[in-house]
Amino acid sequence: MRTIFLTVVSVWILFFSATPALALNPRFEHLTTDDGLPENSVRSIMQDSHGFLWFGTHNGLARYDGYDMKIFLPDPEDSNSIFPRFLIALAQDDSGMVWVGSYSNGMSKYNPHTERFTNYLPDPTNPHALPGIKVEKICPAEDGLWLAMGDAGLVRFDGEKFHRVPILLPDGPMDLDSYPELSSLMVTEDRIWVGTVNNGLVVRDRKGGSWRLLRHNPDNPRSLPSDRITDIFQDQSGRTWIATRTGLALYRGDDGFEVFLPEALNSPNPERNYLVKIAADGQGDLWIGSAVGLYFFTPRTGEFTLFAHDPKKPTSPVLGPALSVLVDKSGIVWAGSWHTGLNKYDPWSQKFDVLLHDDTNPGSLDDDAVVSIFEDGQGVLWVGTGSMSSGGTIGGLNRRFPGSDQFEHLPMPGAAAVGIHRFNAITEDRKGRLWLGTNKGLWRLNDDRTQIIRPPEIAGQSDQLSKGSVISLLLDQSDRLWMTMWNGGLHRYDPQTENWTSY
Predict the structure, then answer these.
(1) What does pTM read for this prediction?
(2) pLDDT tens digit string along 221-248?
(3) Residues 455, 470: Cα–Cα separation, whole Å
(4) Could you tell me the residue ranges of all domains in the chain?
(5) Which of 243-257, 320-334, 433-447, 453-467 is predicted least confidently?
(6) What φ, ψ does residue 8 adopt, rounded to 5°?
(7) How far apart (Å, rounded) are the C-alpha atoms in residues 456 and 464?
(8) How far, CA to CA in Å, does 170 sit from each of 190, 209, 228?
(9) Domain 2-11+353-502 is in which class?
């Protein structure tokens, strides 16, 4: 059960889902170098444990607190500054360290406590140094830091030494090098998933065993749509999604996939199937960066919706491909582009439906002044209305059943209700009784919820309980009813003893 108490004079009532669905016409905001980015190509996005957003660009690193950008650039005079500029991978480990991978200058570690960087570069004289310069993906795990490298294959860093991990297939094929050119990586509790640039997907159990190579097979509809793997992603349900040069694949077990294509294979626009990065929102839907813009994908239906730049719509995404995607902890979608900055879509900013009183609709609210909202254990929505002044509108109680868009209005209890102007609070006890706090004392619904009645529980009690203004109601873990009153203190009703206590 959820209760919301509103103590403003008068509010518009707004109903929204716990995670907002996609708006019909999403409005994208744009962030560029004018807003503090060091460069407009954003290749990687991450949110750290403190909520800061990190953006890896072609010219340095940015940390964003929602208001300002803090820029990190190489400084030849400072060995503790970040070394690379062209940044394509970001990750944070359990100790809070931020790891940054670059296209051509190795890797850096940022310590937020000292605000200093440690840089890792190849060293021909050290066999345990970083073995290459192109770090495509960084995956922290309990046994170290796993790296997918574009020029050195799969690598694990134990905190002191870098170890190259050969990919050895028991049955070939011979054209897959032991240290292939990698594009993506995912390390889960039970598996290591490795994406290659042109040789498909390689999988191995975390405990060891043989590597398995999964490739596109034009004669097998359950194979990958392409051997060019661009991203590997696990959603909140544990499903593994693969982005490729030619569509999206969902791993279905037994080394088989279900394939989803934005465009048919014989489409005159094959670039529409070139997917780059995957992220998921709170509803389990996917946001996928692509060569032609940002896709919204609904797994339930298998449908893609493309959001691309439209010069006639300034709130459309920026021009160009979406190279990086993140859905942050608040549900905001971020997508980095090539040379044109960041896209930001806030679903909370535009997914509100305003429900108002309508004289022509008997199923609308009885009044626009909403002072309390409550959802009971059956999913029924209760809305209390009324004026905050004694001379305003007469308050009422509205009820809407699940699946309905119409409100019912509970009848007031005759002459006894004279003077009620507000239903300030609503709650439900374990017996399913609905308690109502008004500006004229405590009320509740009868057992079949057809009438508002004076609770027999307050018979013989102080007039304060029947005449004072109830501000809020709360049922504790023992099902005791707590009630605060305007200039009337705190009161508690214990259903076990049937006694009231005033504080």
Answers:
(1) 0.69
(2) 999 999 999 999 999 999 999 999 999 9
(3) 14
(4) 2-11+353-502
(5) 453-467
(6) -85, 165
(7) 15
(8) 20, 10, 22
(9) mainly beta
